[in-house]
Amino acid sequence: MEKKELLRKLPKMDELLKEDVVINRLDDTMRTLVVDSLRASIDEYRESILKDKINDFAKEDILSKFEEILEDSKEPNLKRVINATGVVIHTNLGRSILSKEAVENVIGVAANYNNLEYDLKKGERGSRYSHVEELIKKVTGAEAALVVNNNAAAVMLVLNTLCKDKEAIVSRGQLVEIGGSFRVPDVMTFSGASLVEVGTTNRTHLYDYENNINENTGVLLKVHTSNFKILGFTEDVSLEELVELGKDKSIPVIEDIGSGTLVDFSKYNFVYEPTVQESIRKGVDVVTFSGDKMLGGPQAGIIVGKKEFVNKMKKNQLTRALRIDKMTLAALEGTIKYYLDEKEAIEKIPTLHMILSSKDEHKKRAYSLKRKLQNKNKEFKFSVEEDYSMVGGGSMPIEKIPTYVIKVKSDKYKPEELEVMLRKNKVPIIVRVSNDEVIMDIRTMFDEDFNAVAETFSRF
Ligand SMILES: *Cc1c(COP(=O)(O)O)cnc(C)c1O
Q1: Which key words are in the record (predicted)?
Q2: Residue 156 CB–ligand 1 contact under 6 Å
Q3: Closest residue to atom 15 of ligand 1, CA basis
Q4: Residue range of the domain that includes 178
């Protein structure tokens, strides 16, 4: 049929609204949703006509497209995806995955009334922070702990409490941007602290801090530059020296350690990443870190340190605005509990397990997925190869973890096309495209998803 003719044949909205399928839908669906879906269906057909993709259609086609669009629109926008990127703590893909126990805790607390702010022993009002405080103190060795919405909030709260209208001295080499537009200088400004940058990008000495201390100095701040490394001619002041200086001048020393590792990764042949326990042991007054990076828990900002300072933060009105909710608390408790026994933490916390699991473990899994893929698909060529995974989340930027990947070759589709098709799948599969190849890293994928992945390819 002619383009013009086809365009004229497109049904009008009024006409479609009289159709039985549409009337039935209106019984239990909002009218605007029905109308929007009808319009989207008509638009899609108009587009196909204009692009010469179809040369005829029936009204039933438009109605069935309408039903498809309507069903899709009821799917949640925020949904699970399959992470085949090999980046374990992928900030765009929700960072850390919770352990089974943490998830069960969340469900139990969210679906029922609970003792969020009720002291069951005394039968009176309690504090929401009490549920995790003792646990965090135990695993970090700190005197006191407080949990807020995320680490950015933690840094802001600490500075607002200890350094409002005062100066925070920080090394120029640590004024970092951490992605998601968290910029240390900006957060500091919002907190009411003013920034005194000392040293140069690559070298900062103790005397740089010393020479800038005056009666208006509020804190000495150290920021862990987690997402980049300055190599070569560098010099940094050690934590011990900074703590010594702080003690000497009676100025609190604050550390934003970012990733918040509670496990010494160097034991497992990784680069050394400073642990929270070590900073506390060395005498840092307040340490802040994220809940959903190396810790492997939910989004949260954890503040640990000396009681006198943490107590001040608890009394700060800002804490009320930054407080974490019951579901996060449930997930956090379910995660941190594992750290009482490091072996258990490594086994049960998915982030730790994924980072520390051996290449050989993934080799078997890679061949198992390859078999499933090949059985169902003759159009594609799959090969198992060695490659590297990344920790991600701005953690361990130079660490490359040996892994196994599946590389996909196709005569039918370009790698970029295949990437889009996989991304637009009902359960999206997020892959890497590198050197003109589609790459799926086994390390961040689950065995339970292998069948679904194989099936997805068979539909292409
Ligand atoms: C990631 C990071 C932050 C921000 O933490 P969020 O929990 O994402 O708010 C702050 N400081 C450092 C050093 C970080 O690595």
Answers
A1: Cytoplasm, Protein biosynthesis, Pyridoxal phosphate, Selenium, Transferase
A2: no
A3: 258
A4: 119-341
